[in-house]
Design brief:
The protein is of the alpha/beta class. Among the domains are: about 350-490, Rossmann fold (3-Layer(aba) Sandwich); about 515-680, Rossmann fold (3-Layer(aba) Sandwich), CATH 3.40.50. It is about 50% helix and about 10% strand. The strands form two sheets. An eight-stranded parallel beta sheet has the order 3-2-1-4-5-6-7-14, covered by helices on one side. Strands 10-9-8-11-12-13 form a six-stranded parallel beta sheet, with helices on both faces. The radius of gyration is 30 Å and the shape is globular.
C-alpha cells in the first residue's frame, strides 16, 4: 500500500504566511506573501528579492525568501536566507524553525532537532505548533516514535485544530504497524482539512491493511478526485481494486499513472505484473526492463515478489530484495534485546520454535506444513504459532492450531506489539513463513524479537534483510555455490526443502474426463500453475506440442475470462484453434486432486516453477516435467522430482524440455512406465516421507541453536544425508 509522506509529490495545502504589524505597509513584501500563498513560488521569490534589494535588513523578507526557496527545492539558497535572518536578529525563532525544515529535507536529523530546540526555546512566550511538528518528523525519521508522539502532543496542546498534528500522528502509527490508530488520525486530519488528498490517500492504504477493501476504494477515489494530476494518489486505488477482483480497472489505473508519469517505477512494476496475470504479453519484456530501470535499480522500493516472478536473474532479485529489506531496517527502532538465560533459567528444557504466518487456514502453506508440525518431537521442541491471518473455520485450520503447544492471533497487535509478544515468549528460533508475499508483516522481524530468524517455505528467494539469519533450502533449489545470491546463510536439508502432508487422502476412483470438458481418448497436456507464471516463450513450446500431437489438448487454470480470452488469441496467432485449449476454474482442494489424475503430463513453467501445485500433481500420480533455472523459484520442481527419485524428468534447457515432452506424448508405453514408477515411489522415497523430513528439519534447527549457544555467527551448513 502506498501512503504519502511529507516528501511525496501529492501537494500539501499551505498555511498562509502572515505579515507582522511592522511590515503591513510594505506593498512589495505583501505582494510576495500573496504570491507565495497562491503557490506562485517563482513570482514570490522574485518579489522577495526585489524587497530585499530595497532593504537588506528586512527580516520577514529573508524568512519569506527562505520558505519559498525551500518549497522550490533550493535548500542551499533557503539555508542562506534563514541564516541571514538569524544574523540580523539572533532571537528570530522562525529562522531556526526554517533551518530545521531544511536540515530535515537533507536527512540531517540531529541538526534538525538542534534547530527545533532553539526555535522552541526562543518562542516560549508565544509557542508555535510547527516547531514541535518538525521535531516530531525528525524524531520519527530517527525511529524514535515515542518521543515523536510526545512532540506532537505538545503541538496539539498549542493548536488542537492543526491538521498537520494528526497527519504526522497517522504516519507514525502506520510505521508502528497500528492501522486502526492511523485511521483515526487521518480522519481527524480531514475533519480539519477536508480537501487534503494526502490524508485520504493514506487513509485508503490503512483501510487496505484493515481489510476494508470497499471502503478503501471509495476513500482512494476521493483522494484521486482532489489531486487528479498527481500519480501517487492512484496507487492505493489500483491496489484496492485488485484486491476486490476488479483486475481490468486496476490495470487501467496503473496505465493512467504511467501516462501521468512515464518514469513511475512502482506503477510500471505493478502494471507489468497485472499484464503477467492477464497473459497480456505484447511488448511486456521491454516494459519490464523499463520498470526495473526506473525502480529498484534506482533504490526505489518495489515488491520483491513481483520482480521474482518476472526475472530469471538471481542478482536482480537480490538487488530488489535488499532495497526493501534496508527500508524495513530503517523503519524499525533498535532491535529488542535477545533472550539470554539467567542463572535460575540456564536454558529452556525444550527449544522454543515460533512459526509466523498469515496462512494458518485453508491455504497451500498450511497444506504443506501441517503434517510436519504434527510430527515434531514435543519432548525436545515447544511450538508457538503466531497467526497474522483469518480463522476460516476449516478442518485444516483446526489441525494446524492443534499441532502447536501455544497459538496466538496477532492481528490486533501493532508490529511492535507483536514483536514484544514473541520476545516475551522467549522464542529461540522464529521461522517466517511469508517473506514478501501477501499478508506478510516483515517489520515484526525487523524488531528482531528472536535471536535466530529464518526465511522458511513461504518465499522462494532471498529477503535481502540484515535481520534474517538463515534460509532453509536444499542442494537443488539453492546450491552452496549460490550463496552470493542470498543475504541469509543457506541451510541444506538433504532431500528437499519442502515438507508435505502424507496423511492427505487421495480420492477413491477417478471422475470422468467429460465432466471437465476433456477428450475421452486424446492426449491431455496440463498446467495448473497460476497464469502469471506462463510466459510467451513457454506458450510457444506448448503450441508446438499441440501441433505435433494430433487430438491433444492443453488443460489450463484460467479463473478470469480475460485470461482465457488472451490465451485463445495467442493460440490462434500460433495456428491453434480454440477447441485445443480447455480451461479449469478454481475448485476445492479435494476436487483438484481428483481431477489432476485425468491428465497425461504436467508441463511446468519458467522462471517460476510449480511449487505446491507440483507436489499435488506428484501426490496424485501425474508425471511432471520441468526446466531447471538459476533462481530458487525456478528450481523447486527439480528438487521435488529428485526427492521422489525421478531426475530424468528434469531438463536443463527449454530445448530439452520440449524434446522430452514431445517424446513422452508420442510414447504411450514409456509414459505408462513413468507413471507406474511415480506410483511406486510416492510412499517409498523422501518427498512424502514426513517423519524423515521432520527429523532432518529438527537437526537443522538444533544446529542453528548450537552455533548461537557457542557464540558463533550464522554460517551455511548442510544436514547429514545419513541422518535417521
Amino acid at each position: 500500500m502506498k501512503r504519502a509522506r511529507q516528501t511525496k509529490r501529492t501537494p500539501k495545502p499551505k498555511e498562509p504566511i502572515r505579515s507582522s504589524p511592522e511590515t503591513i505597509g510594505h506593498d512589495g513584501y505583501l505582494k510576495a506573501v500573496a504570491a507565495q500563498n497562491s503557490g506562485s513560488l517563482s513570482t514570490a521569490a522574485s518579489l522577495f528579492r526585489t524587497c530585499l534589494e530595497q532593504d537588506r535588513r528586512h527580516i520577514e523578507a529573508w524568512l519569506g525568501l527562505g520558505a519559498t526557496l525551500k518549497d522550490q527545492g533550493d535548500l542551499k539558497g533557503a539555508e542562506h536566507a534563514y541564516r541571514t535572518a538569524i544574523g540580523l536578529q539572533p532571537g528570530v525563532s522562525a529562522g531556526f524553525g526554517g533551518l530545521a525544515e531544511v536540515c530535515l529535507k537533507q536527512g540531517l536529523l540531529e541538526r534538525a532537532l538542534d534547530h527545533c530546540g532553539k526555535a522552541i526555546i526562543l518562542s516560549r512566550s508565544a509557542p508555535k505548533a510547527d516547531y514541535y511538528i518538525t521535531a516530531a518528523k525528525a524524531l520519527a525519521e530517527s525511529g524514535l516514535y515515542h518521543e515523536a508522539l510526545k512532540a506532537l502532543t505538545s503541538a496539539w496542546r498549542i493548536e488542537p485544530a492543526n491538521p498537520d498534528v494528526y497527519f504526522q500522528m497517522g504516519l507514525i502509527y502506520e510505521d508502528q504497524g497500528e492501522p486502526a490508530a492511523a485511521f483515526d488520525a487521518y480522519q481527524k486530519t480531514v475533519a480539519y482539512r477536508p480537501r487534503d488528498a494526502r490524508a485520504y490517500n493514506n487513509m485508503a492504504a490503512v483501510l487496505i491493511t484493515l481489510g476494508q477493501v470497499e471502503l478503501a476504494i471509495a476513500t482512494a477515489r476521493m483522494a484521486a478526485a482532489l489531486a487528479p494530476r498527481h500519480p501517487d494518489v492512484y496507487l492505493n486505488l489500483a491496489a484496492a481494486l485488485r484486491l476486490h477482483g476488479d483486475d481490468d480497472e486496476a490495470q487501467g489505473i496503473y496505465e493512467k499513472i504511467v501516462e501521468l508519469d512515464p518514469d513511475h517505477g512502482e506503477a510500471l512494476v505493478e502494471l507489468c505484473h497485472r499484464r503477467q496475470h492477464a497473459c497480456d504479453w505484447d511488448g511486456l519484456a521491454s516494459q519490464q526492463e523499463e520498470a526495473w530501470e526506473n525502480s529498484y535499480r534506482k533504490g526505489r522500493v518495489v515488491s520483491p515478489f513481483i520482480v521474482m516472478t518476472a526475472t530469471a536473474s538471481p542478482i536482480e532479485q537480490l538487488r530488489c530484495a535488499r532495497v526493501w529489506g534496508e527500508r524495513l531496517s530503517k523503519l524499525a527502532p533498535a532491535p529488542l534485546a535477545p533472550y539470554r538465560p539467567t542463572a535460575v533459567d540456564q536454558k529452556h528444557s525444550k527449544l522454543r520454535l515460533g512459526y509466523l504466518s498469515a496462512d494458518f487456514h485453508s491455504h497451500a502453506t498450511a497444506m504443506l506444513i501441517v503434517d510436519m508440525l504434527e510430527q515434531h518431537d514435543k519432548t525436545r521442541f515447544e511450538l508457538f504459532g503466531y497467526s497474522l491471518g483469518p480463522d476460516d473455520g476449516s478442518i485444516l485450520r483446526q489441525r494446524v492450531v492443534d499441532a502447536f503447544d501455544h497459538f496466538a492471533d496477532l492481528r490486533g497487535l501493532s508490529d511492535a506489539g507483536a514483536a514484544m509478544k514473541i520476545h516475551a515468549n522467549q522464542i529461540d528460533i522464529l521461522l517466517d513463513l511469508k517473506g514478501y508475499t501477501q499478508g506478510a508483516r516483515v517489520k515484526i522481524l525487523a524488531y528482531e524479537p528472536a535471536p535466530i530468524q529464518v526465511n522458511y517455505l513461504g518465499f522462494p528467494g532471498t529477503m535481502g534483510a540484515p535481520f534474517i539469519d538463515y534460509i532453509v533450502a536444499d542442494p537443488h533449489v539453492a546450491p552452496m555455490a549460490h550463496q552470493a545470491h542470498f543475504d541469509e546463510k543457506i541451510v541444506h536439508l538433504p532431500h528437499c526443502y519442502q515438507p508435505n502432508d502424507r496423511r492427505r487422502a487421495l480420492p477413491r476412483g477417478l471422475p470422468e474426463r467429460a465432466e471437465f470438458g476433456l477428450p475421452k481418448d486424446g492426449f491431455v497436456f496440463c498446467c495448473f500453475n497460476n497464469p502469471y507464471k506462463i510466459t510467451a516463450e513457454i506458450f510457444d513450446i506448448w503450441m508446438r506440442l499441440l501441433r505435433e500431437t494430433p487430438g491433444s489438448v492443453l488443460w489450463l487454470l484460467a479463473p478470469k475470462k480475460r485470461v482465457a480470452k488472451n490465451l485463445l488469441r495467442e493460440a490462434s496467432a500460433r495456428g491453434i484453434g480454440p477447441g485445443r485449449l480447455v480451461f479449469a476454474p478454481f475448485v476445492a482442494p479435494e476436487q483438484h486432486l481428483a481431477r489432476l489424475a485425468l491428465a497425461d503430463l504436467f508441463l511446468d513453467t519458467l522462471p517460476v516453477n510449480a511449487h505446491t501445485t507440483a507436489s499435488e500433481a506428484l501426490w496424485a500420480g501425474l508425471p511432471l516435467i520441468t526446466c531447471q533455472g538459476e533462481t530458487f523459484a525456478s528450481r523447486v520442481a527439480a528438487s521435488l522430482l529428485h526427492a521422489i527419485e525421478m531426475p530424468d524428468l528434469v531438463t536443463g534447457s527449454l530445448e530439452a524440455y520440449e524434446a522430452l515432452a514431445m517424446k513422452l506424448a508420442h510414447d504411450p508405453a514409456g509414459l505408462a512406465a513413468i507413471r507406474k514408477r511415480l506410483q511406486d515411489n510416492r510412499l517409498n522415497t523422501a518427498l512424502f516421507d514426513t517423519p524423515r523430513y521432520t527429523k532432518n528439519f529438527e537437526a537443522a534447527l538444533l544446529r542453528m541453536d548450537e552455533l548461537r549457544q557457542s557464540g558463533q555467527p550464522p554460517r551455511p551448513f548442510a544436514v547429514d544425508v545419513n541422518l535417521k
